[in-house]
Every structure is written in structure tokens, then in C-alpha cells.
Design brief:
Blueprint: H1 2-7, H2 9-35, H3 39-62, H4 67-109, H5 126-137, H6 140-184, H7 186-201, H8 205-241, H9 246-256, H10 264-276, H11 280-294, H12 297-305, H13 314-328, H14 332-356
Length: 357
């Protein structure tokens, strides 16, 4: 009997190994399914907390080490800085899109309107645009058909954008809730993560953690800092050109600056409005201001805020934003580029370590 039991011992050990592996896999899959609805908010909360951790430490010192109170203060600050503006933007889009659509439709139904006298004098395209203008307004039916073809997709697109921003508000709110606990229990969370990473990568765990933290902060500072700078410059330009509601348009520029080629949607529209209102000089000014000042900020401020080691190539940044939106919704604007930047930085570190060896 003893010999038989010893003979089966390797098989028993192999069976126990696969049984343990299956049990751990099932448990991990179950935990993932339970936490999957909160994955986006948790990732966003981690990115926000890592980026704002120095501010939290400053607030913690001001509150004499009371972690719960400092965590509550940071959570309220996130609500005021991120969630409230997004909620107002979603409400404004949803409230104004339908009314704007109806006003344009009524203007089209009102009958022909002569093009501005200066339109013919625009170099290269003036004559062609003037002739097309007359062609469109010569027929009421053609005008209404053009209005439907152009405005219906634009209306649906803007409403979809408002819904996406609204979903972003929900995700941001949940991330702020999760962030409260990350702030409050930051030391224990950091210790657990360092231990976990240490089991995976060994002695280089501290270096890996440093790369992750620096990359997350660099990308977030680059995204938000560039967007804020473009929003301020845009607001100044709208004010100088006499465009109505320069501050809301500046906020829209700030939000759209988080998207690739987003700001031109605002300043080109403002320039078209100025041309339409009979101010071609200010329209040209708005185009030049938008091209050289608003969009030019991206080429100056972003490299200053993002360190060279974590600077994403344009194609990866573009893919990170669009892929992040498809995967996570509006908050993917922050999560997508950050994940790609962290992955690229870790890959560079791993390749560099291999070369050194």
C-alpha cells in the first residue's frame, strides 16, 4: 500500500496544482464580473487620485493629519471642479440643441434671403459660394431638403454628445465616491499595490511604481493644462471679436480640447457666424486667432507639461483618446491615453533593462 501511495504521489500533486489553479481562476473571473460595472470609475478614480495626491498631502497637513476630513475635502473639490462643469455642459447642450434647430428651420422656411454683399469679394471661392447661395434659396423645397439633410445629423450628433457627457457625469460622480476611500486609505492601498507589483516584477517594483506615478501625472497635467490654456486663449479671442457668450464658448473649447482636433469645431463656427452677420474682418481675425493662437497652444503648452519620457506619439495619443471613448465612454478621454502612456513607459523600461543586461 505504501508503494502504491508513493507511486501516485506525483499525479496527486499535479491534480492538486490544477485544482488550485482552476479554483483561483474561477474566483478571479467571478471577482472581475462583480467589479466590472465599477471598473471604469475605479480606473478614473485611481488616475485622478495619483494626479492630485500632492494636493491631498498639502490639505492633509493643513488639517493636521485628519485623513477622513482631508479626503472629504478633496472629494468636494473634485465635485466642484470636474462634476459640476460637466453637468452644466450636458444640461446646456441638451437644452439648446432643439431650440437652435427649430430657429434655423424657421429661418429656412421664412423664404429666400440674399447673400451678404461682401461674399462675392472673397478671393477664390466668393463667386462660387455666392452662386450656390442663390441656387439654394431659389427653391423653397430645395432649401428645406438641404436643411433636413444637414441639420438632422448635426442635431442627433450634438444630442448624442450631450448624452455621452451626461454619462461622464455619472462616471465622474462614482469615481469621486471611490476616490474618497483611496484618499482616506491611501497608505494601505499603496502598500498593497507595491506588494502585488513586487511579487510580479521582483526587485524592480519600486522603479515600476515610480514610472506609473510619473507617467499618469504627466499625461493628466498635459491633457488638462493644455485644455485650460486653450479655453482661456479662446475666451480672449471670442471677446475681442465680439462673439456672443464668450465664456460658455471658452468652456466648450476647454472640453473639446480633450479631443483630437476638437477646438476648431468651436472657433471655426464662431468665424462662420461672424461672416454670416456681415463682419468679414472679424471673421478672418477669428480664423487666424484660432489657427495660430488657440490650436497653436497645443504645440507649446503640451510639451512643457508632459515630460519627454512619457510623451506619447501623436498616433498613440489619438488612438488612446478615441479608443478610450469607445471603451469607457466620455471618461475614456482621460483613461485611454493614460493607459497607453503607462504601457509605453513600462515597455521602454523593460527594453532598456534588457539592453543594460
Amino acid at each position: 500500500m505504501t508503494g502504491i501511495r508513493k507511486g501516485h504521489n506525483p499525479m496527486e500533486k499535479r491534480f492538486e496544482y490544477f485544482a488550485h489553479l482552476a479554483a483561483v481562476s474561477i474566483l478571479a473571473a467571478g471577482c472581475f464580473l462583480v467589479l466590472m460595472p465599477f471598473l471604469t470609475a475605479t480606473l478614473l478614480a485611481a488616475v485622478i487620485c495619483i494626479s492630485t495626491w500632492p494636493l491631498f498631502l498639502l490639505l492633509l497637513r493643513r488639517m493636521k493629519g485628519r485623513q477622513t476630513l482631508a479626503a472629504l475635502g478633496m472629494t468636494l473639490l473634485l465635485v466642484l471642479v470636474l462634476i459640476v462643469p460637466l453637468a452644466l455642459a450636458a444640461y446646456t447642450v441638451a437644452d439648446n440643441v432643439t431650440s437652435l434647430y427649430n430657429e434655423i428651420k424657421q429661418a429656412a422656411q421664412a423664404g429666400p434671403r440674399d447673400p451678404p454683399a461682401w461674399l462675392k469679394s472673397v478671393p477664390l471661392v466668393g463667386e462660387a459660394v455666392n452662386a450656390y447661395w442663390h441656387l439654394i434659396y431659389s427653391s423653397q423645397e430645395e432649401m428645406l431638403g438641404l436643411t433636413r439633410r444637414l441639420l438632422e445629423p448635426a442635431k442627433n450628433l450634438l444630442l448624442a454628445g450631450g448624452i455621452m457627457i451626461g454619462q461622464g457625469v455619472v462616471e465622474m460622480s462614482l469615481a469621486a465616491f471611490v476616490g474618497f476611500f483611496i484618499y482616506r486609505d491611501g497608505a494601505s492601498v499603496a502598500g498593497f499595490l507595491e506588494g502585488t507589483i513586487g511579487r510580479v516584477v521582483g526587485e524592480h517594483a519600486e522603479n515600476v511604481v515610480g514610472i506609473i506615478i510619473n507617467t499618469v501625472r504627466a499625461v493628466m497635467y498635459g491633457l488638462l493644462g493644455t485644455a485650460l490654456a486653450q479655453g482661456i486663449v479662446a475666451t480672449i479671442g471670442f471677446t475681442i471679436a465680439g462673439v456672443p457668450a464668450p465664456i460658455p464658448l471658452g468652456v466648450a473649447t476647454f472640453l473639446l480640447s480633450l479631443l483630437p482636433v476638437g477646438p476648431p469645431l468651436v472657433w471655426v463656427s464662431a468665424a462662420i457666424w461672424l461672416f454670416y452677420r456681415g463682419h468679414p474682418g472679424w471673421g478672418v481675425f477669428m480664423l487666424l486667432w484660432g489657427f495660430f493662437m488657440i490650436s497653436g497652444v497645443d504645440n507649446v503648452v503640451r510639451p512643457m507639461l508632459i515630460s519627454r519620457t512619457s510623451n506619447l506619439p501623436f498616433i498613440l495619443g489619438f488612438s488612446g483618446v478615441l479608443g478610450g471613448i469607445l471603451a469607457f465612454g466620455f471618461v475614456g478621454i482621460f483613461i485611454g491615453p493614460t493607459l497607453l502612456a503607462v504601457g509605453l513607459s513600462l515597455l521602454k523600461e523593460w527594453v532598456g533593462r534588457g539592453s543594460a543586461v
